[in-house]
Structure formats: C-alpha cells, structure tokens
Specification:
With 537 residues, the protein is an all-alpha fold. It has a domain at 240-445 and 488-503. Helices cover 64% and strands 1% of the residues. It has 21 helices and two strands. The chain has helices at 7-12, 15-40, 57-87, 104-115, 125-179, 182-197, 216-235, 240-246, 257-260, 279-290, 297-321, 328-344, 352-358, 362-387, 398-419, 425-444, 447-453, 459-475, 477-483, 493-496, 499-503; strands spanning 346-347, 350-351. It has a two-stranded antiparallel ribbon. Strand 1 and strand 2 form a beta hairpin. The chain crosses the membrane at residues 56-82, 155-174. Keywords: Membrane, Transmembrane, Transmembrane helix.
C-alpha cells in the first residue's frame, strides 16, 4: 500500500510520463544517429562544406549538448522503462478495450470548474451571462487539450509497449528454437507460476487508479518480491555482537540495571536534575568500562562492538519517539561522548586508557572521573548560567549534561565500592556490561512501536519508511524473540519510551549497582543491600 500510493510511483507509471520518456529517448537517439552519421558518412552533410568559423568551439558545443541530452534523458528513460515493466508481463494477453479511454481523474478538476459558479460578483445580468459563457468555452478548450494530450500519450505508450512486446516475443521464440526444449520451458514456467501461487494474495492492498486493473497483478508481484528481498536481507545481517550482549541482561527480572545505574543517594550537583535519555547512560558506563585496567582486550573489543551496534537502534528509537525534541541536547551529549570513546578512548578531554595506567586502584579511577566531571560541570554551568539563567535542565550545554551523567554514575559506583572490599576490575567490568545490556534491552522493547510508527509518516516518505521498517524487522528478529521470552513491563507504550519512567517502576530504588562477589559467580550478579534508608524532612 505504501509503495503503490507513493506519488513518485503513481506519476512514474502514468501515460503522460511514459510519453515524455519516449520523446526524450527519441531525442537522444536522434542526436546519437546524427553524430554517428557525421563521422561514418561525412559526405551525407552536403550543406556543411568547408571549415567552420567557430573552429574548436564546435566540439565544445557538441560535447555540452551531448552531456545535457544524456543527463536530461536518464530520469524520463527510467520512467519509460518502469511503465514497460508493468505492461510487458501481460504481453501474451489481449489488449484492453478501454486502452484509448480517457479516465475521469484526468479531467475531473476541469469538469468541476465548469460546473461551479463564478466567484466574481457582477451586477449586470448580461455581463454575468457573458462571463459564464466565456468561462465555459475556455474550460472546454482546456478539456479538449487535456483529452488530446492524454490520448496522444496513450498512443505513444501503446506503440512503445507493443513494440517491446514484439521484440520480447521474438527473443522468446529464438530461445525456444535454440534450446529445442519447449516442454521443459513450459514446465519451468508452470513451476514458477505454481511458486508464485503459493504467495499470499495481496491484491486488495494494491492502490491503483482507474483503468489500471490489469496492472494489479504485476504491481503485487513486484512489490511482494521487493519487500521479501528487504526482509531476507535484514535477516542475513543480524547484530550478532548486540545479541551476545543482550543475553547477559536480567530480562527475567525486568532489566534491573535500568534502575540501578544511578542511585538516589547521590547528592545532586544542582537543585534541578536533567532527564535521562537511553543513550547517555550507555555511553557513560562504556567510558568507565574502558578506563578499567586488567581487562582483556578481547572483552573490551566485544563490548565496544556491541555498544556500537546497540546505539544504532537506540538512535532510531529516540529519533522516532522523541517527536517533540525535548531530549535533543541530552542525545547530542551522548553522541559527542560516544564519538570520543569510540575513536580515541577519551571521555571529553580525559584519556581513559592513560587514566587506567596511572591509577593505582579501581576506586581511584572512579574518584578521578567523578572529580573531573564535577569540575567540568561547575565551570561550564557557571558560564551557561550567566548567559541563560532561566533555561530548563534539558537545555543545558552538552558538556554540562555529559559531566552530570558521569558524576552521578561514578558516585553510584563509588558508594558500592565503599561497601565492598572484594571489588576487582573484572567483576566491575562484568557489572557494567550487565547494566549496559539491561539499558539497551529495555530500550529495544520499543522496536515494535517504532516499526509501526512508519505508517503515520507523510505519503511522500512513507514508501522509504516502510522499506526501512521491513529491513529493521528482519535485522531484529532474534532480538525480538529474546525480549519476548519474559513479560517485560506493565507500562503503557508512551511511558515505555522514556528511561525515567522505567526507573520509576518501583517506589524503592536500590542504591548500589549489581556487582557479583567472588563466591557467587554462578548466581544472580547483584545482591541488594539489606539496609533501608529513610530520608526525614
């Protein structure tokens, strides 16, 4: 439906467009014939004797004209071949009796203009009658011209199509004579028809104009094959690294890492807190993971590849579901941070690999990241507040938002570090990996909504959006199966699109991330503290 109602597709298969394509091809062929004849049979140009006064410039004019004709003929020629493609599959069938009938939609607007009264207010009755008569005559002339153009275009299309039909029929005959196996060809044709008959009948979904009934089958087959191609192409490009990461998520427990990467016990750097987007905590946690020493390069590379694949879908989801652009600055901050982490192993200007070498412990790394983030936040926020003192937190500068995220996550990890003495780099890296996996998994539960969101797009871009949705549907098949294994959330679809709504699912939030102890590697990777914190005001 999206493809057959596309304005480009409707115009491309119209008779006027086909006629213009035929004329453009005729002009290109005429120029090519003249050029070949001038070089192969120069004596045929008796009126061009002697040397031209323009000398070398004639060659430049010829080249320029050839380029212009060639470029100008590409698009019309494609439209002409597109029209032939839908007519030629039915070349062995008899032509329609209404082939030279002008459909109503060609002249409907002119007929309505003729029937409607004039909007001009004229006092004199004779003048009104004269104006109405003149208007009708002008509309009749336009109707005649429109009818003539359409009929002429249909004649040109008829000649083009049936010339191609005879050529294709002759080609088929030559192939049969060369192979001398007509029975096999007939059986193969019947086999292909039987294979096609097994496909679902989608003819009722094909949107077509009046007089295009014979094209429904061709359009249905062509678009079904195209859609199936994009679906299969997506299935062959499954994000394998992202799948390996999502298998580590706590999907059965409702993605606990979404709530636990940021503790409510961390004191805010400002009286207001900006909202979260899906991508910013993911890239911040990845930056912290990169700064950890004593982690194998294979695990680090696997994490980076997984996050890279996951962020492509996160951006797609946020682009579609953040229609109002309320999180645009926060998403920009995530993109800037990830660019530095992915390409240079840097968080803003901090070299993460250098920090991992210089620091003596994991706690020192987290403290340095927290201190640097706090310093950046204060410096950038001071400059910003002098310029825009009343701006909302979601409109803070990119560096302020990135620093605030790093500070809160680092402090959350430090609080857990102080309560555990057996914290080592490998287990912290594992905990960060699970948190990243949980955030990505919770975000990807919105994929179905994004895929269906393409139906609400404008008609002009709907065709592209549907093709893209089909491709994503194929690429995320295994991801959707993994996420469907457990009931994910009781949130309504609008709230599921926001990470802060996921975090507010439980009234009591845990205060420390899930870091497995050395004595419980095979069990759940997070043990919640048994302490109950109450804030009295």
């Amino acid at each position: 439906m999206a493809h057959t109602c596309s304005p480009q597709f409707v115009v491309g298969r119209s008779v006027t467009c086909s006629a213009s394509g035929a004329f453009c091809l005729l002009v290109a062929m005429t120029l090519a014939e003249a050029m070949l004849r001038s070089y192969l049979m120069p004596r045929s140009f008796k009126f061009c004797t002697g040397e031209s006064e323009y000398k070398w410039s004639t060659i430049v004019v010829l080249i320029t004209q050839t380029i212009a004709v060639g470029v100008g003929s590409i698009a019309p020629a494609i439209r002409w071949f597109s029209a032939l493609k839908f007519r030629c599959p039915t070349r062995r069938k008899k032509s329609s009796k209404r082939i030279f009938t002008v459909e109503r939609y060609w002249i409907q607007l002119l007929v309505e203009m003729k029937e409607c009264p004039l909007a001009i207010r004229i006092q004199d009755r004779f003048c009104r009658k004269l104006a109405y008569y003149v208007n009708n005559k002008l509309v009749d002339i336009c109707l005649g011209m429109q009818t003539g153009i359409v009929l002429g275009s249909k004649v040109i299309q008829f000649i083009s199509v049936y010339s191609m039909i005879w050529m294709l029929s002759l080609s088929d005959l030559c192939k049969k004579l060369r192979t001398m196996k007509p029975d096999n060809s007939i059986s193969s044709d019947s086999g292909s028809e039987s294979r096609y008959s097994t496909k679902p009948d989608l003819s009722r979904f094909v949107l077509h104009l009046e007089g295009e009934d014979e094209l429904v089958e061709s359009m249905m087959k062509n678009n079904f094959d195209t859609t199936d191609h994009w679906l299969r192409r997506g299935e062959r490009k499954q994000p394998k690294h992202l799948m390996e990461l999502l298998e580590k998520s706590t999907v059965a427990e409702g993605f606990k890492g979404v709530k636990e990467f940021d503790s409510d016990l961390v004191l805010s750097l400002d009286c207001d807190e900006p909202p979260n987007c899906w991508a910013l905590p993911v890239v911040t946690l990845t930056a912290i993971a990169v700064a950890l020493p004593n982690v194998s390069s294979a695990l680090m590379k696997q994490l980076m590849l997984s996050v890279h694949e996951g962020l492509m879908y996160v951006r797609l989801i946020e682009d579609n579901l953040d229609a109002k652009g309320e999180l645009i600055n926060i998403r920009k901050a995530a993109n800037v941070v990830w660019l530095g982490v992915d390409l240079d192993n840097k968080w803003l200007d901090v070299d993460l690999r250098k920090l991992s070498v210089q620091a003596e412990s994991t706690k020192e790394i987290l403290e340095k990241l927290s201190d640097v983030a706090k310093t950046r936040f204060v410096e950038c926020k001071k400059i910003f507040m002098n310029q825009c003192p009343k701006e909302r937190p979601s409109k803070w500068p990119i560096k302020v938002l990135a620093a605030n995220s790093m500070y809160r996550i680092s402090q959350t990890l430090l609080q857990n570090c102080e309560s555990r003495n057996d914290l080592v780099d490998e287990r912290l890296f594992e905990a960060l990996t699970v948190m990243i996996s949980d955030i990505l998994g919770a975000c990807l539960t919105n994929l179905r909504r994004v895929i269906f969101h393409c139906l609400s797009r404008a008609v002009i871009e709907r065709d592209y959006c549907v093709r893209r949705a089909v491709h994503i549907l194929g690429k995320t098949e295994k991801i959707r199966k993994l996420l469907d294994q457990q009931p994910i959330s009781t949130l309504d679809p609008d709230r599921m699109a926001c990470i802060d709504e996921w975090r507010s699912l439980n009234d009591l939030k845990t205060s420390s991330p899930f870091i497995p102890s050395s004595s419980a590697k095979s069990e759940t990777v997070f043990s919640t503290s048994s302490d109950l914190y109450l804030t009295m005001e």
